[in-house]
Write a structure and sequence with these properties.
alpha/beta; three-stranded mixed sheet; about 45% helix; 13 strands; Dehydroquinate synthase-like, alpha domain; 13 helices; globular; 2 domains; four-stranded parallel sheet; Rossmann fold
């Protein structure tokens, strides 16, 4: 099974390959791209053990050398210190070489590698090989790269489109169930913001999806990738407002992650809570019918995704929320649903209402 989607961005266009084959499809595409003769693979120790040697062999078959650098397997890898450490290593081997970078990992590895590609020598090529469902359906696509600061998530960043996204379904088969569920949070997001058919598909096929059925995984990865690609094509740098809808659930979700020190909640879990909060705010404002709110909560429940942050620090969450980069002229910009399949962007949300809903979702232990 090989599906190919093109992200059309003029001279920054690139393919998304969705496959359950080995690395042969990747080798064929790389030979066409002619990115360079020397690859630097950024990964973590677990992914290195599972897949790095197979990838190295595929590169060697094209007469491309490969250096492999490990980063810690956590959100803390997206730090200034880790960036400087890896960039220094890249610089030390960069002698008369045509370097390109490969992000072999989840969203953290993808963000860090993309930011290095954007900034090293004012830009070098890179490709994404996402190894988590969340990265395959979302973070590997679109060219947003970022590092975290102690005061907030993704506050240092750049736009840098990859030359290729290679989403191999087999790479996610080794993930623990928690990681699969975290990826599904982003898939549910796509259903809520634009695609009722995708939402219904998850409702109907969740058992097969959680059982890692290839056909079902291929469907949701392709559907999500198509949605992300089309939105990016029409609003690459989030200037028209269209790409903003991808932030559904993320404003509050990022605040929860920041307040927890990027350790207690995985990204998908934080986004799940953020989506419930946003949907509840929309319902209390009278724009989302109760039955739609309950349907969202039911599906997240079915997927065993959280709707509340237990034992959280409300003050820390609110402080992180107020520092969010989505604040415009002192007012927060949030994405709210009016029904499943449609959302809107607004700044007219009473802060006390936001605070009330966040507090409610942190009250139970």
């Amino acid at each position: 099974m090989i599906n190919q989607i093109k992200v059309n961005l003029a001279n920054r266009s690139y393919p998304i390959i969705i496959t359950d084959d080995n690395f042969e499809a990747l080798a064929k595409k790389l030979s066409q791209l002619k990115l360079g003769t020397d690859a630097v693979i950024i990964t973590n120790s677990r992914i290195r053990r599972l897949y790095a040697e197979e990838l190295r062999k595929a590169l060697n078959s094209l007469k491309i050398s490969a250096h492999i650098f490990n980063v810690p397997d956590s959100e803390k890898s997206k730090s200034i210190s880790e960036y400087v450490k890896i960039i220094s290593k890249i610089s030390s081997i960069d002698t008369k070489k045509r370097l390109f970078l490969i992000a072999l990992g989840g969203g953290v590895v993808g963000d860090l590698t993309g930011f290095m590609a954007a900034t090293y020598k004012r830009g070098i090529p890179y490709i994404q090989i996402p190894t988590t469902l969340l990265a395959q359906v979302d973070s590997a696509i679109g060219g947003k790269t970022a590092l975290d600061l102690p005061s907030g998530k993704n506050l240092v960043g750049a736009f840098c489109q990859p030359k290729l996204v290679y989403s191999n379904i087999n790479l996610i088969k080794s993930l623990p169930p928690r990681q699969i569920r975290c990826g599904l949070a982003e898939v549910v997001k796509y259903g809520i913001i634009v695609d009722t058919k995708l939402f219904r598909y998850i409702e109907k096929n969740y058992k097969k999806i959680l059982g890692l059925d290839n056909s079902c995984l291929g469907y949701i990865i392709k559907a999500s990738s198509l949605i992300k690609a089309k939105i990016v094509e029409n609003d690459e740098r989030e200037t028209s407002g269209l790409r903003t809808i991808l932030n559904f659930g993320h404003t509050i979700g990022h605040a929860l992650e920041t307040a927890a020190g990027y350790s207690k909640l995985n990204h998908g879990e934080a986004i799940s809570i953020g989506m419930v909060c946003s949907a509840e705010i929309a319902h209390l404002m009278g724009v989302l019918p109760r039955e739609e709110l309950l349907r969202i909560i039911k599906l997240l429940n079915t997927l065993k995704l959280p709707q509340e942050a237990k034992k959280g620090d409300l003050k820390a969450v609110l402080n992180a929320f107020l520092r969010d980069k989505k604040f415009i002229n002192g007012r927060v910009r949030m994405v709210l649903p009016s029904r499943i399949g449609h959302v809107f962007v607004t700044e007219n949300i009473p802060y006390n209402l936001i605070k009330k809903v966040i507090k409610k979702r942190m009250a139970k232990t």
